[in-house]
């Protein structure tokens, strides 16, 4: 038995207690897509002949993307979805939390939506399964926007540091947070225990200059806190234990036109190579987003969407 089965079991039980009105009716265009090994919570909005797909950077939820959608919906269809194991995208038996499992989910979801070919706008660790789908299914993916990650090897190290810090903040574990997260069963139990408080305890540290920008902080935190109050999930241990198993050599290069965006105010990446993703998209256009933190598309939707629009019409 794998440790992730604890998360699958507890979330299958929680499904019966969810408020269906909250899960699907807080915004227009929200629905649950039922796939073989996971359900995926998706919001579809906008109009146009091209479709931009945003993966919600965990723990954020589709309600966090109001400003992004508002900036793009007149010219594009916009899809945003919560990744399996986060938000209300509850995994089912058979979902393994590997990079391949996420790639299969994305492929199936895009085919189910039937709105392609797609422009993928993916942040952080989700980039690496987006690259896999773009390389394997060129018919589905026409362009890529990759946000706030470095090369795979460094990103794995970054993830280990970040999960340790998260447990320090949420569970007051001053040491061994990364080791606890990496330990099957123990990691799942600890992260399930801190799940209800996770967003409230970590978000103030992730948002750039949160204390100096109370209006921004309220805009980003209110829908996220409400989601966790209504049953949003955070299967960080399961993802950490299985997603990063692949070696560097398995990360593909892509041929599609690519834009790489980098937020300069992300303290968690202050030692990372900001151009690390060029290894997988050597002909990409690279642009920084100044004075912005890790969740750049949410903190600075105007700057990010303007950069995307310029890239897509170039």
CATH architecture: 3-Layer(aba) Sandwich
Please tell me what the overall shape is.
globular
Number of helices: 13
* Helix percentage range: 40-55%
Under CATH, the topology can be stated as Rossmann fold
Query: Rg to the nearest angstrom?
Result: 18 Å
Total strands: the figure is: 10
Say which CATH homologous superfamily is assigned.
Answer: Alpha/Beta hydrolase fold, catalytic domain
Query: How is the largest sheet built, in terms of strand order?
Result: 1-2-4-3-6-7-9-10
Poorly predicted regions: none
Task: Describe what this molecule looks like in 3D.
The chain is of the alpha/beta class and 314 residues long. The chain has one domain: Alpha/Beta hydrolase fold, catalytic domain (Rossmann fold). The chain is 43% helix and 17% strand. The protein is built from 13 helices and ten strands. The protein has helices at 4-15, 20-25, 66-72, 99-113, 127-136, 152-171, 177-182, 186-194, 198-206, 214-229, 236-243, 296-299, 301-313; strands at 30-34, 39-46, 51-56, 77-82, 86-87, 118-123, 141-147, 233-234, 258-263, 285-289. The strands form two sheets. An eight-stranded mixed beta sheet has the order 1-2-4-3-6-7-9-10, with helices on both faces. Strand 6, helix 5 and strand 7 (141-147) form a beta-alpha-beta unit. Helix 3 packs parallel to helix 13, helix 4 (99-113) crosses helix 5 (127-136) and helix 9 packs antiparallel against helix 10. The longest helix is centred in the middle third of the chain and has 20 residues, at 152-171. The chain starts with a helix and ends with a helix. The mean pLDDT is 96.
């Amino acid at each position: 038995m794998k440790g992730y089965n604890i998360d699958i079991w507890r979330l299958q039980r929680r499904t019966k207690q969810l408020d269906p009105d909250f899960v699907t009716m807080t915004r227009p265009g929200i629905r649950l897509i039922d796939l073989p090994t996971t359900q995926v919570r998706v919001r579809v909005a906008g109009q146009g002949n091209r479709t931009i797909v945003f993966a919600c950077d965990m723990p954020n939820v589709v309600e966090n993307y109001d400003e992004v959608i508002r900036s793009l919906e007149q010219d594009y269809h916009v899809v945003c979805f919560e990744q399996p194991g986060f938000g209300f995208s509850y995994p089912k038996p058979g979902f393994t939390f590997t990079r391949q499992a996420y790639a299969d989910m994305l492929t199936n979801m895009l085919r189910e939506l039937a709105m392609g070919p797609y422009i993928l706008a993916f942040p952080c660790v989700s980039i690496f399964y987006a690259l896999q789908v773009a390389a394997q299914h060129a018919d589905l993916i026409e362009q890529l926007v990759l946000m706030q990650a470095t090369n795979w090897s460094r990103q794995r190290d970054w993830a280990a540091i970040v999960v340790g810090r998260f447990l320090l903040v949420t569970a007051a574990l001053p040491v061994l947070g990364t080791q606890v997260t990496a330990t099957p069963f123990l990691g799942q139990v600890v992260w399930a225990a801190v799940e209800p408080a996770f967003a409230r305890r970590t978000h103030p540290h992730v948002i750039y200059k949160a204390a100096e920008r109370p209006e921004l902080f309220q805009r980003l935190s209110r829908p996220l806190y409400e989601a966790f109050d209504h049953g949003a999930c955070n299967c960080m241990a399961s993802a950490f234990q299985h997603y990063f198993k692949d070696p560097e050599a398995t990360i593909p290069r892509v041929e599609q036109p690519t834009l790489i965006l980098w937020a300069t105010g992300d303290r968690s990446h202050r030692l990372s190579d900001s151009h690390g993703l060029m290894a997988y998209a050597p002909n990409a256009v690279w642009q920084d987003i100044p004075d912005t933190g890790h969740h750049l598309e949410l903190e600075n939707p105007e700057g990010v969407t303007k950069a995307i629009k310029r890239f897509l019409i170039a």
